[in-house]
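User: Can you predict the 3D structure for this chain?
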Amino acid sequence: MLPSFHDGLLCGLSVTETTATLSLVEVDGRRWAVELTGVRLLKADDFRQGNIVLDLAVVTGEPPPHGWLEKLLPAPHPEVAAVYHDAHRAHLDELEAGIAAGALTLVVLSPSYGCELLAICEACRGVELPQLL
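Assistant: Here is the predicted structure, written as structure tokens:
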């Protein structure tokens, strides 16, 4: 279970081929590493110094809110062949079914300022880090 990071900070993002780690700080100064494993898709836009978190949502075992998957995986250009639109829709349906079934997890960090992050992964867990002296 993750705390509310509302008004906290996203201080760092570390990405490898199949993992991502978000470095977050709560308003009271507690530091966390939120680890995403089995990352399938990840999009992080507008990362800045001083990213302020509005909300961190983790969705699994239920259908994702409308529009979130489309932000992560936008539709092809309207003028491309219908086969690409059909493949895109099938991919979205597959991801949505995986999230609803609990096989996949959607992670959405909404910003008050700075980075918006969306990811689909197999698992997400938070680890509270020791306090700095």
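The chain has a mean pLDDT of 96. The two ends are 26 Å apart (CA to CA).
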